[in-house]
Amino acid sequence: MKRQKFLETFLTVFGAKQIHWTACDENSIYGTVIFDTIDVNEKQNFVWHMTENKTPDEKVQCLIEYLIKNHLIDGDKLLIPAAGIEIHDMNNDTKTKLFDELFSIRVSMIDNGEETDCYFIHE
Question: How many angstroms separate the CA atoms of 18 and 23, rounded?
Fold first, then answer.
C-alpha cells in the first residue's frame, strides 16, 4: 500500500524503528510506531487521515530520504530553511512544491483513544 510505504519513511524522521499496522479503511490508516524494540513502552498509536489516491507523491518520499541522508532534519525541524537546501537535478519550482506538500502532512497521535498531538515537519 502506498500509504504504508510513505508512512514508513515519514515516521523514520521521528525515530521509528518499526510500525505495527492495526487498521485501514478507505479514508484512514491506523498503527503503532515503535521507537525502541526492547522497551515496549516506547511506542505511540497514530492515525493518518489520508486516502490511498491522495498519498503524497513518491518524490516527497524521496525528499524525506534526502533530508535524512544529508542530516538536514533534526526531530521535526529542518536545520536550514527549505529555500537554502540545494537538491541536484531539481528546479526551485519543483522543490518548493515538494516542500509545501511535506509541510502540510499531519499524522495524528492517539492517546487514550483520542487524537492529541501530531507528527509534522517544519522549517
Answer: 16
Per-residue pLDDT tens for 10-43? 999 999 999 999 999 999 999 999 999 899 899 9
Please give the angle made by the CA atoms of 48, 97 and 14, to the nearest 5 degrees. 40
The residues spanned by each domain of the chain are 2-119
3-state secondary structure of 123: coil
pTM of the full predicted structure?
0.93
Segment 71-119, tens digit of pLDDT: 999 999 999 999 999 998 889 999 999 999 999 999 999 999 999 999 9
CB 37 within 8 A of CB 19: no
Across the strands, what pairs with 105? none
Nearest-angstrom CA–CA distance, 72 and 61: 15
Residues making up the chain, counted from first to last? 123
